[in-house]
Amino acid sequence: MRNLIKKILKENDEWDWIRESNPISFEYLSGKALYFNPPIDNKADLLKLLNYLSNFGFQYGNWYMDLDWDEEGILGIYIDPETNRLVYTTNFMEDDYQEHINGYANRDLELLDGWNFWDSYII
Questions:
Q1: What single-letter DSSP state applies at residue 12?
Q2: pTM, whole model, 2 decimals?
């Protein structure tokens, strides 16, 4: 019976479905940017995101402590593949975020919808 099911599903082994679903991982996130529209506007949400990403091995330092939440929000988080550090952009930049982060990284980056990412993985 198991062989019949494998033929129907065309699986090589019982873990193919996991590999095909592209689960969230260090390799998947590295080099991408999360874009938040509207921006993250409070420290508790930002820390939840930073802690989640740090569990994959990304580092972020203490920059979040200096943000003025009355005037700043986090528009984007770039996951630098060379340093494994999380680089932030506040909502006070004047450029389009895609152009801004591509210029910073010196290449075209894949932007992930930050709030969709949040809803899918962080809740």
A1: S
A2: 0.78
